[in-house]
Every structure is written in C-alpha cells, then in structure tokens.
C-alpha cells in the first residue's frame, strides 16, 4: 500500500531565502513522524507547503497515491490534509462548539446560499455536525467549554479546540505544529492518550512539530531533525537526539 503522505525533493524559497531545501519523507497510513529543529529551521514552512499555504519552488507531494502538488489549499483541506498552527488560528469571537463545527463544513460541502435559507436538508446536516462536534468535545474534555468564546480561553485550551476542529475534518494527514505549548504535565499526558486513541480509530498519518522532545517521543516512534531547511538526521527519537549534528544545530 502507498504511504499516506510522501514528499519528494520539496523546496520552498522566500526571495533569496531557502526555507525548505530538498526535503523528502514518507509517513505510512496510521503512522507517526516527529519533527524537531531550532527556530527558523523551516518546520512550519514545510507544513504550509503540505497544506498548500505556500507554493514550493520544487518537489512533489503525494497523498494516498494521488499527486496533490498542484492542488489548491481548499481541495487539499477537503481531502483531509489539515494542520494546526504554531500561532493558533481559530475564530476568536465564535464559541468552542461553532469553531469545531467549522471543521465539519470542510467535508459536508453545500452551497453557502443554502445555508442562508436553511432548508431542512441543511438543518439536518448542521444538526448532525453539531452532534459529532459535541462527541469530539466530550472526548477532549471540553464539554463544559462548549458555549464559551474561544478568545476568552487559556492558550492550552485553545490548542485543544484547534485539534478538535482538525479531527472534525476526518483527517487523512494531520499536521500538529507545536501542540504542547502552554500545556501542563497533566494536559500533555491526556493529549498523548487522546491523539493515539483517535489515530487508532481514524487511521490518519500524523506529523508533529514539537520542541518538547519527551512529549514528542511519547507520540511518535520516528523523528526527523531539520536545520536551515534540510533534514540533518532521522530515526528513533533517542538516536536522533544523540546525533552530534542535531546537538550542534541547537547550540551552534
Ligand atoms: N511567509 C514568509 N515570508 C518570508 N520568510 C518566511 C515566511 N515564512 C517563514 N519565513 C522564513 O523561513 C524560515 C523558516 O521559518 P519557519 O518555517 O517558520 O521555521 P520553524 O517553524 O522551523 O521555526 C525563517 O527564516 C523564516 O523567517
Ligand atoms: Mg514554526
């Protein structure tokens, strides 16, 4: 079976700066990959190239045997290539529930004008999506936050809402950009449990960027280290962390 995600020779340039340089990697269906590297290494840009927010200068991107390199962002999102952001991107003035329902709209596509007139079919879809969103909120221990405005919530809670919204799309490839930021130890432990459980159920490919390596090693069995846009080491977390080039990339 083809890998869920495979990237060949991906390069992203911003003017004269090569943010991602000839990166190749694969993640199996149901597999996990961790990405580490110092600030500015190109980790977030790699995610943005996978979801279609930035256009690569070179390279090829395959998802489940489909070449999505030229697909626009919305089409990738609708086919389950979704990410969370290093700087959370939620609708701050909407409630937690509303934000999660938005994730469902990505796959339950219907003309916006139908939503305005609200015929029974649309109401039925909305009802069903709200039910699914509530079930997800329950599993992420967010039920008591359902009606709260997102902008009023602590950062770590917003991070979880963002993950709930991403899961709501029924992802094929889920990219999490520094999910542990602001979480305490209990929240981190809970997060690891729930993401693993959801991955077993939904069988998406998971890629996680994270500075907290102990947290990352609980989520993934394989890691790549990036520096100046390139992959400088890959393998099991403990062996990647022990690579002199990796140590040097943080200190040098
Ligand atoms: N939209 C952009 N325009 C110009 N430069 C960018 C843009 N996004 C990122 N960069 C630059 O690309 C490099 C990689 O950034 P980024 O992918 O955010 O690194 P990381 O996530 O590993 O910290 C940095 O030098 C950053 O300043
Ligand atoms: Mg980043």
List the helices and strands and how they pair.
Layout: E1 5-14, E2 17-27, E3 32-36, H1 43-51, E4 58-63, E5 66-67, H2 73-78, E6 81-83, H3 96-105, H4 112-117, H5 120-139, H6 155-168, E7 173-177, H7 185-202, E8 205-209, H8 213-219, E9 223-227, E10 230-235, H9 237-242, H10 244-251
Parallel strand pairs: 3-8, 3-9, 6-7, 7-8
Antiparallel strand pairs: 1-2, 1-4, 4-5, 9-10
Bound molecules: adenosine-5'-diphosphate and magnesium ion.
The site of adenosine-5'-diphosphate has 11 residues, from strand 2 and helix 1.
Portion of residues in helices? 40-55%
> What would you call the structural class?
alpha/beta
Number of domains: 2
Bound molecules: adenosine-5'-diphosphate, magnesium ion
Give the mean pLDDT: 92
N-to-C SSE string, H for helix and E for strand: EEEHEEHEHHHHEHEHEEHH
Keywords:
single chain; 252 residues; alpha/beta; six-stranded mixed sheet; four-stranded antiparallel sheet; 10 strands; globular; binds magnesium ion
Walk me through this protein's architecture:
It is a single chain. By secondary structure, this protein is α/β, with parallel strands linked by helices. The protein folds into 2 domains: 1-80 and 172-252, P-loop containing nucleotide triphosphate hydrolases (Rossmann fold, 3-Layer(aba) Sandwich); 91-170, no CATH class. It has 10 helices and 10 strands. The protein has helices at residues 43-51, 73-78, 96-105, 112-117, 120-139, 155-168, 185-202, 213-219, 237-242, 244-251; strands spanning 5-14, 17-27, 32-36, 58-63, 66-67, 81-83, 173-177, 205-209, 223-227, 230-235. A 6-stranded mixed beta sheet has the order 6-7-8-3-9-10, with helices on both faces. Helix 3 (96-105) crosses helix 5, helix 3 (96-105) runs parallel beside helix 6 (155-168) and helix 5 crosses helix 6. The radius of gyration is 18 Å and the shape is globular. The model has no long low-confidence stretch (mean pLDDT 92). Magnesium ion binds next to helix 1. The site of magnesium ion has 3 residues, from helix 1.
């Amino acid at each position: 079976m083809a890998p869920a995600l495979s990237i060949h020779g991906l390069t992203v340039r911003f003017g004269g700066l090569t943010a991602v340089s000839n990166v190749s990697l694969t993640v199996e269906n149901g597999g996990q990959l961790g990405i580490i590297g110092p600030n500015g290494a190109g980790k977030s840009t790699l995610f943005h190239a996978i979801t279609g927010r930035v256009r690569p200068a070179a390279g090829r991107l395959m998802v489940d045997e489909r070449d999505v390199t030229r697909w626009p962002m919305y089409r990738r999102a609708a086919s389950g290539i979704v990410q969370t952001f290093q700087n959370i991107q939620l609708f701050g003035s909407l409630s937690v529930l509303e934000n999660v329902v938005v994730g469902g709209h990505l796959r339950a596509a219907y003309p916006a004008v139908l939503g305005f007139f609200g015929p029974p079919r649309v109401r039925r879809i909305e009802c069903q999506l709200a039910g699914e969103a509530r079930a997800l909120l329950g599993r992420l221990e967010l039920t008591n936050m359902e009606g709260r405005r997102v902008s009023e919530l602590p950062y770590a809670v917003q991070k979880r809402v963002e993950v709930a919204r991403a899961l709501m799309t029924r992802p094929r490839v889920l990219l999490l950009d520094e999910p542990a930021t602001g979480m305490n130890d209990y929240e981190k432990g809970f997060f690891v449990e729930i993401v693993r459980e959801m991955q077993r159920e939904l069988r998406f490919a998971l890629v996680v960027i994270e500075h907290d390596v102990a947290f990352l090693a609980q989520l993934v069995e394989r890691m790549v280290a990036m520096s100046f846009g390139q992959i400088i080491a890959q393998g099991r977390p403990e062996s990647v962390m022990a690579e002199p080039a990796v140590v040097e990339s943080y200190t040098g």
